[in-house]
Amino acid sequence: QVQLQESGPGLVKPSQTLSLTCTVSGTSITAMYNAWSWIRQAPGKGLEWMGVITYADSTYYSPFLKSRTSISRDTSKNQFSLQLRSVTPEDTAVYYCHVNGYWGQGTQVTVSS
Q: Which of 110, 85, 98, 99 is nearest to 15 (CA)?
């Protein structure tokens, strides 16, 4: 069974970089046709797709976040990561990693000084 687990700091200061990691078990992040996404949900708002890294190491980003977002992977650890630069309080949200209908439990990130 595929399992995903997000990890990272729960509090980030404005203007800093938010960094999260998703650890994957039950499948390889290089398995064919998988596309590994980061999705977030701000308080009182719907789900927002942030970007994806494919099994072939291609990346695609939301046009609204593209200038601030990077997604990468570490195949030796079966992990993929999110970096969101220059955060503001509007980036406060629960952040999820996702693949093929499988979700991590989500991790709350608050941007505050």
A: 85
- Cβ atoms of 109 and 18 within 8 Å: the answer is yes
For tokens 């009182």, the residue is 44
Per-residue pLDDT reduced to its tens digit, 35-87: 999 999 999 999 999 999 999 999 999 999 999 999 999 999 999 999 999 99
SS3 letters for 41-97? Answer: ECCCCCEEEEEEEECCCCEEECCCCHHHEEEEEECCCCEEEEEECCCCHHHCEEEEE
User: Taking a C-beta distance cutoff of 8 angstroms, is the pair 108, 94 a contact?
Assistant: yes
Please tell me the predicted confidence (pLDDT) of residue 70: 98
d(CA 88, CA 33): 34
Picking from 54, 65, 61, 68, the residue whose alpha carbon sits closest to that of residue 15 is: 68
Task: Indicate the Cα dihedral angle 103, 92, 41, 4, nearest 10°.
Answer: 0
